[in-house]
Design brief:
This protein has about 300 residues and is α/β, with parallel strands linked by helices. The chain has eleven helices and 14 strands.
Length: about 300
């Protein structure tokens, strides 16, 4: 089987049509069909079911799809790595909170240092989705919480502090920190991106350890939305400090938790960092504070 055949297969799947795929690939439809049939002979079975109005994956096709995606994206990653740090594209995957709170300043510094390399950002809601997509070859590297089990290189670049957000007129707004049991009777703004720790949503876990169950006022999809809700007085929200101070602004009061909540940040990849990926990792590791920075690891 060839890389071209896998690219043809993926295009047919994405378009659900041989006709549209042939147009995008600038080949004739008979030539495209010939390449797909040759690929199916190589793998030993039908990958696509031809329908009167389109195509769909067979069970073998569904099993083959992620491997084809990984191969095609790995080839693209190899081409980008060969281009070095002075040309081409660099694909970076991350979670939403890091995208809005940390990466804008880092990307600006990158553009000044490497104007010839375009950055392509892929955002995901959870660390689990981030790791899954990087493993499938969607991006060249990822920036986020360090993965627990990862076969490739992982470079620690700092840590982020998780803080509490309340409105300016809240009775606690004048304080620098608070102990969690003091908030036992408060409503909370919960976010779908809340991490899962020890099989529980983070807030459920820590509040349970503090002796109470958090009362949810509203659930949001994004961290930045949860912060805005908290600033308006809907309830207390948790968020990385860099999201509140960097992306959302200083229109709310921020409280540290005693003892502090912190989690690490890392750059990780499926392969060793080379070219633009190595240069970006070095820039991020040498940047200013990422939340509360650490030099350990």
């Amino acid at each position: 089987m060839s890389l071209r055949q896998m690219e043809y297969f993926l295009t047919v799947v994405e378009e659900s049509s041989f006709t549209r795929a042939a147009e995008l690939l600038h080949v004739t439809q008979p030539a495209l069909s010939h390449q797909i049939k040759a690929l199916e002979r190589t793998v030993g079975g039908a990958l696509l079911e031809r329908l009167p109005r389109g195509v769909r994956l067979t069970p073998m096709g569904r099993a083959y799809l992620p491997h084809a995606e990984r191969s095609v994206r790995s080839a693209a990653q190899a081409r980008r790595a060969a281009a070095g740090a002075e040309g081409g594209e660099l694909h970076i995957a991350t979670v939403h909170a890091v995208a809005v709170g940390i990466l804008p300043d880092v990307f600006a510094r990158w553009r000044r240092a490497h104007p010839g390399v375009a950055l392509v950002l892929h955002e995901y809601a959870t660390p689990e989705a981030l790791e899954e997509q990087l493993e499938r070859g969607t991006a060249d590297l990822a920036v986020g919480p360090p993965p627990a089990r990862w076969p490739g290189p992982v470079v620690p670049v700092g840590e982020e502090e998780i803080v509490l957000v309340v409105p300016f007129d809240d009775p606690l707004a004048g304080r620098a920190s608070v102990r969690l049991p003091e908030l036992a009777d408060r409503p909370w703004v919960r976010c779908a991106m809340e991490p899962v720790v020890q099989g529980q949503a983070f807030l459920d876990l820590v509040c349970g350890q503090a002796g109470f169950t958090p009362r949810t006022a509203v659930r949001t999809e994004h961290t930045s939305t949860a912060v805005r809700m908290a600033a308006a007085g809907v309830g207390v929200a948790t968020a990385p400090a860099h999201v509140v101070r960097g992306a959302v602004g200083e229109d709310c009061a921020v409280l540290a938790v005693e003892p502090p909540w912190r989690r690490g940040l890392a750059v990780f990849s499926r392969v060793e960092f080379t070219g633009a990926a190595a240069a970006f990792t070095e820039l991020l590791a040498g940047s200013g504070p990422l939340g509360s920075r650490t030099t350990t690891g």
